From TrEMBL:
<feature type="domain" description="HTH marR-type">
    <location>
        <begin position="1"/>
        <end position="119"/>
    </location>
</feature>
<dbReference type="InterPro" id="IPR036390">
    <property type="entry name" value="WH_DNA-bd_sf"/>
</dbReference>
<dbReference type="InterPro" id="IPR000835">
    <property type="entry name" value="HTH_MarR-typ"/>
</dbReference>
<protein>
    <submittedName>
        <fullName>Transcriptional regulatory protein slyA-like, MarR family</fullName>
    </submittedName>
</protein>
<dbReference type="Pfam" id="PF12802">
    <property type="entry name" value="MarR_2"/>
</dbReference>
<dbReference type="InterPro" id="IPR036388">
    <property type="entry name" value="WH-like_DNA-bd_sf"/>
</dbReference>
<dbReference type="GO" id="GO:0003700">
    <property type="term" value="F:DNA-binding transcription factor activity"/>
</dbReference>
<dbReference type="GO" id="GO:0006950">
    <property type="term" value="P:response to stress"/>
</dbReference>
<dbReference type="InterPro" id="IPR039422">
    <property type="entry name" value="MarR/SlyA-like"/>
</dbReference>
Length: 133
């Protein structure tokens, strides 16, 4: 995230809001706030403030989740989708600069291992344990 925060997104929004817009775009329409908070690594209160900024900027809206009055889903508006598309293009260029000479199979292996580590860390934080002995 530190490297991403140095990128010249230059869309007139904060880095934290840019990350939320990007994550919402990747998860698709109606991603729940809780999911965004977990993926962004921030607490729910911080996310609420960021979402307030996003709504004020016309980037996103919060929607009710059917059958769950306590949850809210996030939907990107056209302006938010445009921001996300531009950020993805910038990130694609960065990935090529950083990883262009790394074999695809090495990237796939690393991604698989990092996802496994992330799952186990989340399970540990939630349950205080992992499935491994």
């Amino acid at each position: 995230m530190q490297t991403v925060s140095t990128l010249p997104f230059d869309h007139g929004i904060s880095t934290s809001l840019a990350i939320i817009v990007l994550l919402a775009s990747r998860f698709g329409p109606h991603v729940q706030q809780k999911t965004l908070a977990i993926e962004a690594g921030i607490d729910a209160a911080a996310l609420v403030r960021i979402l307030d900024q996003g709504e004020e900027a016309g980037l996103l809206v919060r929607c009710d989740v059917p059958n769950d009055r306590r949850s809210k889903a996030i939907k990107l508006l056209a302006k938010g989708k445009r921001h996300a598309s531009k950020m993805e293009a910038t990130l694609k260029d960065l990935r090529f600069k950083l990883m262009g000479d790394v074999p695809e199979e090495d990237i796939e292996t690393t991604t698989r291992v990092m996802r496994l580590l992330e799952e186990r860390c989340q399970a540990y934080l939630l349950n205080g344990k992992t499935d491994q002995k």
